UniProtKB/TrEMBL annotation:
Residue ranges annotated for the Secretion system C-terminal sorting domain, each copy included: 730-799
The entry's keywords: Leucine-rich repeat, Repeat, Signal
Source domain of life: Bacteria
Keyword Transmembrane: no
Domain DUF7619 as annotated: residue spans: 581-711
Native species: Flavobacterium luteum
Matching InterPro entries: CDIRP, DUF11_rpt, DUF7619, LRR_dom_sf, Secre_tail
One Pfam short name: DUF7619
Molecular function terms from GO: signaling adaptor activity
Signal peptide start-end: 1-19
Name under which the protein is recorded: T9SS type A sorting domain-containing protein
SUPFAM superfamilies: L domain-like
Amino acid sequence: MRILYFLVMGLLVFNGVNAQIVNITDSNFKAKLLKSDTNTYIALNSLGKPIKIDANNDGNIQISEAQNVATLWISSSNIISLSGISSFSNLTDLDCESNKLVSLNLDGLLNLNKLRCSSNQLTSLDVKNLINLESVVCRSNQLVSLNVDGLSNLTELDCSGNKLVSLNLQGLVNLGTFYCSRNQLVSLNLEDLLNLVDLNCGANKLVSLDLSGKLKISNLICSSNQLTSLDISGLNIWYLECSNNQLSSLNLGGIPSLYGLYCNDNLLEFIDASNLTFLNGLTCNNNPNLKQISIKGSNKLNITSCNFTNNPNLVYVCTNENKISEIVDYFSKNGITGVNVNSYCSFNPGGTFYTIQGNTKLDNNNNGCDVADTNYPNLEFNILNGTVSGSLIANTTGNYTISVQEGMQTITPVLENPSYFMVSPTNTVVTFPTQTSPFTQDFCITANGIHPDLEVAVLPITRTRAGFDAKYTIIYKNKGNQTQSGSVNLTFDDAVLDLVTANPLVTNQSVNNLSWNFTDLKPFETRKIELTLNVNSPTETPAVNNNDRLSFTAVINPVNEDEQPVDNSFVLSQLVVGSYDPNDKTCLEGATIPPSALGKYVHYMIRFENKGTAEAENVVVKDMIDTSKFDISSLVVTQGSHPFVTKISETNKVEFIFENINLPFEDATNDGYVAFKIKTKPSLVVGDSFSNTASIYFDYNFPIVTNTATTSVLQSLGNQDFEFSTYFNVFPNPAKQVLNIDVKKQIELSSISIFNTLGQQVLVIPNTQLTKQVDVSNLKTGNYFIKVSSNKGSASGKFVKE
């Protein structure tokens, strides 16, 4: 009986001991556990210290030993099954990546916070009951189902590289990082994910992606889907990758924190990445429909971090002025042609800018400026920021807006005749961002003494063609500080020009003369006289032919004596043309000026015409002034066809900016112009010439470069009646012994004169009806002018004596 008792008790003890051993069926799993010690970092306790799981060295894992483990790292161990893992009831962190698991039952691990089971062969994973989970990384399996329902503590979920076609994310209110790329998802409901910061849903089959309310999102990768639209406006995104979709538009407005943008391989037509002040890189290659890119204001953009290649329809890139050469160089190095690069997509400085605005008035009654006083048009402002200086000439409304960048700005009004007026305040100093933008500063201009001063000019609104009507505008302006009355006279050759219409009506008309009376022309008031004249054809008598010159003289006659009568008269010398470029530049004084005109104003007119198939929203006329020939500080705007402002920068760059004019493309209304005057340098001498060319930008198109308007300083040889090259050719040129004169058309010569560059006559041949050669062997080597007089009038040309 005693023997039987001891035998029963022994069996009970043996079975009790066996009941405390964890049943681990996978030998690799058990071997990994048994390898744990204080140096292997396979198992950690709750204090984060490595431990030996098999503490009693019996070659087994007791439940009590399993319960000592808080962290278990058993990756890359060829484990097929984790049977027995449920005994590790205090486990908070499990890493079983890169094994051969086909299933994973974690029931009972209610304390588990982190699970990493990537790179196995799992087809399903259900962790919905593990309510303390904060991180689940199960990428690169074969999951067709994943149950994370209601895990409100979950902050990280990475299920990339599986076979999921759907995924329920309801209740994951604290999820901040969510990666689900390389699955087969056709939709994602992110509604509950209000704390989402990092989302990668690339390489799925998504046709839409609703990110509304995801105000915390910073990194977004949604490449390689089937998205046709993506609304990210107002989100605080730092990194965006939306490549390989079907996006035709992308609104980047309101996300100034964007640092990296990848939108290549889409159907985008326009990329507006302007004013993204943190943007470092832009990859937008392989967009076959892409026409325009705007990166103006994205001051930190690194061109080496950009890819603009393989966009066959790209024609325009808008960037900061200081980035233009870098972008042009990029296109050149990559063999990309046909892309226009400039800064004219907007007319504010790139990046963060501030505004100074206000109104300028002329104090009519010397009692301080008020709303009843006259607005002062086209006031010039000098803008000084440290050592950088520029100018802005406001439009005709009297209101001005100046956009500047941070720092101290000194704004000073500049008058054409500063002795005529006093300005209050004389300037204003504004520091941004210390002061609030927009900063408002009005200027009041008051008469200083009595200064009557009028001016007049004639603008050829259309080209003059033989047999057609030509339109002209006479501009007269009160530059002084006294209200004026008087008359305007226009003298022209009545034999070849006939008046068609005039507005206002002519006051008096006589042979070769039209006149208009005017009254009460107030200081800084400009008035216009618009008239149409018909030009004789080549078959009329007298005939007008191509390359003839027509002369017009306008005179303004004030009642009171004028302080500066030099600009009370104006002579327009206009060339008759046949075919013509509608975008041109003309010096209204003609091809020559006398030495007496040096240091005084010459007048230019730049005409432009929209020959496109749509309205031109903006037109910019850029003129690079040769400061060795012109005094750029003297530039004064005369007139424009549409409202515009003038910007002067970089010492010699003048930009006439016609913003939002929507210039039509229909032939009757598609024309415009700007006219200005500028003084030549008084240091020029006889024989010098000055040239000027303008570039005209219609919206985002390549600039149209006008002709070069060249004017020579020449001792007066009289006004030309026709263009020399129309009727004559001189050869050889240079000439050594004999200068031959070839008469191209029926014309009778009367005399030939030769002048040196000082305007001195050095040779004259009277009665030259039959002369075809001139002996120049006795002339000194140098440049000469030849003047030919004929029954058609006179004309002058140039030649060189060797």
